[in-house]
Specification:
This protein is α+β, with helices and mostly antiparallel strands and 345 residues long. The protein has 3 domains: 7-38 and 73-146 and 318-339, Nucleotidyltransferase, domain 5 (2-Layer Sandwich), CATH 3.30.420.40; 148-186 and 256-312, ATPase, nucleotide binding domain (Nucleotidyltransferase, domain 5, 2-Layer Sandwich), CATH 3.30.420.40; 188-253, Actin, Chain A, domain 4 (Alpha-Beta Complex), CATH 3.90.640.10. The protein is 37% helix and 28% strand. It contains 11 helices and 19 strands. It has helices at 7-12, 54-59, 81-96, 115-127, 140-147, 188-203, 209-218, 248-271, 275-284, 298-306, 319-329; strands at 14-19, 23-28, 33-38, 41-44, 48-52, 67-70, 73-74, 77-78, 103-109, 132-139, 158-163, 168-174, 177-184, 205-206, 228-235, 241-247, 286-289, 310-312, 338-339. The protein has a 6-stranded mixed β-sheet with strand order 3-2-1-9-10-19, with helices on both faces. Strands 13-12-11-17-18 form a 5-stranded mixed β-sheet, sandwiched between helices. It starts with 6 loop residues before the first helix and ends in a 6-residue tail after the last strand. The structure holds adenosine-5'-triphosphate and magnesium ion. The site of magnesium ion has 4 residues, from loops. Adenosine-5'-triphosphate is lined by residues 20-23, 76, 164-167, 187-189, 213, 217, 220, 290-292, 294-295, 317.
């Protein structure tokens, strides 16, 4: 039941792509699995790609001047299309484990961005040299909903919050469409930046973003670290390498403002929601996903402040890709994908 029987679909291969700012996720109908890698590229002497994905991320903040390690996505949209094309091709070769075969591509697209930015997703897949036969779009929030197990086509009033890397997308879905959707510039990367600046203010110590992220994630499991973590960085005054011990409370405190911005933005969206839908949202609760939604205390803060039950995604990093995999596999969800060919032309 539900699986598409048409042989053209399965045999040719269909791919779901969630181009995250931090992680790219690619689902392949053939392998039935999702590849997750850092969405980064390392280029030597402005010319040659020497690493991509997780391997490029390893070099981040450590590479010499002639190697640039960059992320081609920014705030959920494509900022550097040439590098994104190169990356996508490399990832697709890895996913297919050999020469590229023609396939159908389903790509997640944020809602609250410009038509030009939306069209860039289409151009990317068309021009990346990955033999795309068909290019379809699925709204990211719809995919998130499906990926969290919601029957989005038949549900009314579903509030989805995706806390990603440098953005959080807050959306209200109803009957397979999007009623409201806003992107705000807060996410895991912004959390890290807050820790970096708090450490600098408090201890005159400059730490890297990677360090901030690993401390933040380590503190999510307090049993592992007894509420303390040692960080290494550079002392602003002496310029020399230094270590400091950060406490769990210090890190939590430095994240508070970010949580407040997210909560306030959700409230703002709820204020604009038609009352009938608000009643449904109240019944369903809030659906929380995105990698950074796992940040300790965030879900609690939401349920305290917004007074809604918070449903946590089982697989917060993958919910968009999982959702699109449903669109690929289940005929009743096919209508949630649309063609973006003519967009913005
Ligand atoms: N266990 C965890 N606790 C807290 N944060 C986490 C955890 N695991 C991952 N993250 C954060 O999740 C973020 C990446 O999540 P995700 O893959 O959803 O982002 P993305 O899709 O690449 O970004 P965007 O949707 O904004 O384009 C990173 O900032 C990372 O630090
Ligand atoms: Mg994302």
């Amino acid at each position: 039941m539900g699986l598409l029987s048409g042989k053209n679909l399965v045999s040719s291969g269909s791919f779901a792509i969630d181009l995250g700012t931090n992680n790219i996720k690619i689902y392949s109908s053939a392998g039935e699995r999702i590849m997750v890698q850092k969405n980064m590229i390392a280029i030597e002497n402005k010319k040659r790609m020497i690493a991509y994905g997780d391997a490029a991320y390893e070099m981040f903040e450590k590479a010499p001047g002639n190697i640039s390690v960059t992320a081609p996505m920014s705030s959920g949209v494509i900022a550097d299309i040439r590098n994104m094309e190169q990356l996508l091709k490399a990832f697709m070769q890895e996913v297919q484990g050999g020469p590229l075969r023609p396939g159908d591509y389903f790509i997640a697209i944020p809602t609250d961005v410009t038509e030009v930015e939306k069209r860039a997703f289409y151009d990317l897949v068309r021009d990346a040299g990955i033999r795309a036969r068909k290019i379809m779009a699925v709204e990211k929030a719809i995919a998130d909903g499906l990926g969290m197990g919601i029957d989005v086509k038949n549900s009314q009033g579903v509030l989805v919050v995706d806390v990603g890397y440098d953005t959080t997308e807050i959306s209200i879905l109803s009957l397979g469409g999007i009623v409201l959707s806003r992107i705000i510039k807060v996410g895991g990367h912004v959390f890290d930046a807050s820790i970096v600046s708090a450490v600098r203010r408090e201890f005159n110590l400059v730490i890297g973003m990677k360090t901030a992220e690993s401390v933040r994630i380590a503190f999510n499991d307090i049993t592992q670290n007894e509420g303390k973590a040692v960080v290494y960085g550079r002392d602003i005054v002496t310029g020399l390498p230094m270590e400091r011990t950060l406490t769990h409370d210090f890190v939590s405190e430095s994240l508070k403002e970010n949580f407040r911005v997210i909560v306030d933005s959700i409230k703002l969206i709820l204020e604009r929601t038609p009352p009938e839908l608000a009643a449904d949202i109240y019944r369903h609760g809030l659906f929380l996903t995105g990698g950074a939604s796992q940040e300790e205390g965030l879900a609690q803060e939401m349920s305290n402040e917004i007074r809604l039950a918070v449903n946590l995604a089982e697989s917060p990093v993958n919910s968009v890709a999982l959702g699109i995999s449903q669109v690929i596999r289940k005929s009743q969800y096919r209508s949630l994908a649309y063609t973006i060919e003519g967009l913005g032309k």
